[in-house]
Design a protein that fits this description.
Chain A: It comes from Candidatus Lambdaproteobacteria bacterium RIFOXYD2_FULL_56_26. Chain A: It catalyses: ATP + protein L-histidine = ADP + protein N-phospho-L-histidine. Chain A: Its EC number is 2.7.13.3. Chain A: InterPro entries: HATPase_C_sf, HATPase_dom, His_kinase_dom, HisK_dim/P_dom, HisK_dim/P_sf, Sensor_HK_Regulatory, Sig_transdc_His_kin-like_C. The complex is a heterodimer of chains A (302) and B (251). By secondary structure, chain A is of the alpha+beta class. Helix content of chain A is 63%, strand content 15%. A five-stranded mixed beta sheet of chain A has the order 2-4-5-7-6. A two-stranded antiparallel sheet of chain A has the order 1-3. In chain A, α2 packs antiparallel against α3 and α3 packs across α7. The longest helix of chain A is centred in the first third of the chain and has 88 residues. Chain B is of the alpha/beta class. Chain B has a single domain, classed as Metallo-beta-lactamase, Chain A (4-Layer Sandwich). In chain B, β1 and β2 form a beta hairpin. Chain B is globular and about 50 Å long. The termini of chain B are far apart. The chains are: A alpha+beta (302), B alpha/beta (251). The interface between A and B is medium-sized, with 11 and 14 residues.
């Protein structure tokens, strides 16, 4: 009896000891697993952080690449356009001049002096558009090489416009267009004179090109922080779908003028670039058949 | 000699202040031999073992002392069965001033276990560690036997050699204390497997001659005491190993 109590007791003690050992080991095992999980969690966090970072830098690189590609496409299209201008449009004034010269040599007899005046007018007009095209091309190429930096000076806006009107006088007269200028007397502005002249020349030339029997008006408006030039014509106007594309940083195929004047699309493209390089803006409102209102602003900050 | 069979589920006192806190799985025939030296104010843990052994080893440590009392962990070499659990052990000990004691060439490898504690690099400290009590542990670098970064530790006080993988053995019937000549047989198999040649063994044994060794405590195999010590040394001195057995070339 006594022996059996001792055996049973001994077995109980041994069982309790085994359970204790097993519990202690389980606790330690959990501790170990917890530690290892923590290590894994830290590694995972570091990995996710790393992946996120590389994702971001990848996205940045991708964005930059996409932007570069887009810029490259635009630049390529612009270059193609330039080549087609060089190949075709630059040739046209000379072809025209040759045609006029041939006409002159055939028809010019002493009594026919009236026809002489007419021919000289044509020569002037063709030469003018030729010079304009070459000027625009030069300015544009100059801009491409990144040298387009405005050099602001003070000048009289009215005087600048009158000079341009003299240039276009006979061409406008041939198309029965009156050139008008509305400006505050003696209004001096400060801007890059050459750039402003190129912008205005292109806008006035366009006004005349797309108008027959009408008017081209140049206005200067003084605002708080900027000067705004307006070039308003009473011509054929612009279709809405063309209007949308006009100032979208690319060359837009030019429509033929009312007297079949050719255009390259380079003029407006340049006008926009020259405006923006002076921190200005350019915009247009127009409806087909109701003329166009082009405007550009030049800030007074210079 | 030992009347009662040893219970390997318990920590086993080798001496009053040296404990075996190892792991023995009789069915899988797997074992490892971590040891504790409990000094006056400091406690050293030798080669804490692998991740799967962690709970058993540390349970036995806890049976003897509070793990927070461990001040040094000695790493004889880098093998995963020897110290694969070092980062978890370090975490459980939780002492800022815990030191990992090893040869400086081992530091680079042990770092891969994710440890945080500072290293006490024995070769940069005169090959010795003096405890607060004045007890001196001396370390021998043992390249070629078998880890290039390995050390053995001699405890001058107890005249014990913590011998890492040297003097270890592979046995089907492991016992903590060597008690029969079969121990030499398993020792032979083990050394012929991991030691490159008898020449390096001999050089090492010669270096041991200046120590009075009462017992040898290896990482694998059995603890050698008494007459087993000189017999084991003599046995290894004459044991052809590694390349000696293949006619001087790689097998």
């Amino acid at each position: 009896m006594k022996e059996s109590i001792l055996t049973t007791g001994g077995r109980h003690v041994s069982e309790v000891r085994d359970i204790n050992r097993s519990l202690a080991e389980k606790a330690l095992n959990m501790r170990c697993q917890a530690y290892l999980s923590q290590v894994k969690a830290n590694l995972l966090t570091a990995t996710i952080y790393g992946i996120n970072n590389s994702k971001k830098s990848l996205q940045r690189e991708l964005d930059q690449k996409t932007r570069l590609e887009r810029e490259l496409k635009v630049a390529n299209a612009t270059k193609d356009r330039l080549l087609s201008i060089l190949a075709h449009d630059l040739r046209s004034p000379f072809t025209n001049l040759i045609g006029i010269a041939e006409g002159l040599s055939k028809n010019l007899q002493p009594p026919n002096l009236e026809s002489l005046g007419e021919h000289i007018g044509m020569v002037h007009s063709v030469a003018l558009s030729g010079v304009e095209l070459v000027d625009n091309l030069l300015t544009w190429i100059w801009g491409l090489s990144g040298q387009i930096k405005p050099q602001p000076v003070r000048f009289e806006a009215n005087k600048l416009v009158q000079e341009l009107f003299m240039l276009f006088e006979s061409h406008a007269k041939n198309k029965s267009i009156s050139l008008k200028c509305e400006m505050p007397a003696g209004s001096e502005i400060q801007a890059d004179r050459h750039m402003t002249q190129t912008i205005l020349r292109n806008l006035i030339s366009n006004g005349i090109k797309y108008t027959a029997n009408g008017e081209v008006l140049v206005k200067l408006e003084e605002r708080n922080r900027e000067w705004v030039f307006w070039v308003i014509d009473t011509g054929v106007g612009i279709a809405p779908e063309v209007l949308d594309r006009l100032f979208k940083n690319q060359l837009v195929e030019s429509a033929t003028g009312t007297a079949k004047e050719y255009g390259t699309g380079l003029g407006l493209f340049l006008a926009k670039e020259l405006c923006e390089s002076q921190s200005g803006k350019i915009w247009v409102t127009s409806k087909p058949g109701q003329g166009s209102q082009f405007a550009f602003s030049l800030p007074k900050v210079y | 000699m030992r009347v009662k069979a040893l219970d390997y589920e318990n920590p086993i006192a080798v001496l009053r202040d040296i404990y075996w806190v190892g792991f023995y799985d009789q069915e899988a025939d797997l074992h490892c031999n971590p040891y504790l030296i409990i000094d006056d104010e400091e406690v050293l843990l030798f080669d804490p073992g692998s991740i799967p052994h962690f709970s058993v080893v540390m349970r036995k440590v806890i049976d003897v002392i509070n793990p927070e009392e461990i001040t040094h962990v000695v790493l004889s070499h880098q093998d995963p069965d020897v110290c694969g659990n070092i980062a978890v052990v370090e975490d459980l000990i939780g002492r800022d001033d815990l030191k990992l004691v090893n040869h400086s060439s081992l530091t680079r490898l042990v770092q891969h276990y994710g440890v945080k504690s500072p290293f006490y690099e024995v070769d940069k400290n005169g090959g010795k560690l003096e405890l607060k009590s004045g007890r001196v542990l001396e370390f021998l670098h043992t390249p070629f036997l078998h880890s290039p970064f390995g050390i053995v530790t001699y405890d001058h006080e107890s005249k014990s050699l913590f011998s890492s993988d040297i003097f270890g053995g592979l046995s089907d019937h492991w016992s903590l204390f060597a008690s029969e000549d079969a121990a030499f047989e398993s020792m032979s198999r083990w050394h012929q497997l991991i030691i490159p040649s008898n020449r390096v063994l001999k050089d090492f044994l010669q270096k041991l001659e200046r120590f009075d060794i009462q017992r040898i405590l290896p990482q694998h195999g059995s603890i050698l005491e008494g007459s087993f010590v000189p017999r084991a040394i003599e046995h290894l001195r004459n044991l052809p190993c590694g390349i000696d057995l293949t006619g001087g070339t790689l097998p």
